Amino acid sequence: MTAYFIRRLLQSVIVIIGVTLLSFLTLHVAGDPTYLYVSERATEQEIRETRAKLGFDRPLPEQYIDFLMGLAQGDLGDSLRYRTPALPIVLEHLPATIELTIFAMLVSTILAVPIGILSAKYRGTPLDGSIMMLAMAGQSMPSFWLGIMLMIYAGVKLRLLPISGHIPVIDPLLAGQWDEAIDNFPNAVYHLMMPGITVGVFSLSRNARLIRSSMLEVLSQDYVTTARAKGLKERVVVFRHAFRNALIPVVTIFGLEFGFLLSGVVVTETVFRWPGVGRLVYNAINQRDIPLVQAAVVMFSFIFVGLNLMVDMLYARLDPRVRLH
Asked: In the chain, which end has fewer C-beta atoms inside a 10 angstrom radius, N or C?
């Protein structure tokens, strides 16, 4: 187990280095980045002084080493728009994105498990066909279209849910204000429902199909047939014997799902004007605030690789066979 962990840790380090290299190169891919930091009316002397001050006159390998040293100290440069360090700005918007991601994850997981099991249990029936048709539709709908439709019908016409607004929960928790967080929780969930459903529908549809496929594979195994032959109730066979083993491949997807959702809410946050990292990155791209985009990309890469490593460790614990590969 220790050797497997060390091997996966080294692979994660290589991935992080690759992401940081690509992120660093994005600043130089369009030419001299000095012009991002000076006004259009800057003189040649001012441009040269700015280039030397920022270190853009040095070879790229030296600049990359400085970039890594700054990253080790939590310094990823200053935002061009806010004129303050970029990483704290990203971290300031991160709690809102985490709240949206957790809610979407709960929606997709809580609903996908019973739907997938039900579809596998009644394979080939009209119920199974209807569930799979809805799952295909859920995977086919663009998130921005679904969000706009929810805003029009559930928000404007029926007035069931608010179309915008954010009530913080994680921020008060981090500040130790537990009473405020508890008081905000009901309203926070109310405001989270529409964007959370928008983000979670795709994952719900995919996870339901994955669970169905995994359950069908397990239900065809000999030990399941033996359990039924012993006279065990179907509920016991499905949940105690089949579902437990069907979870092994599903755990990997569910573990990585959080990372995918966390980094994939840019469109949804923009549609609902959600004050998270996704909307921040969207605005930064439009304003060519490359250091801010870099900070967000590097942060998301660390989170995603960390989640990947945790899932691998959990997977190795559930299925010892993976340690041999």
From this structure: C
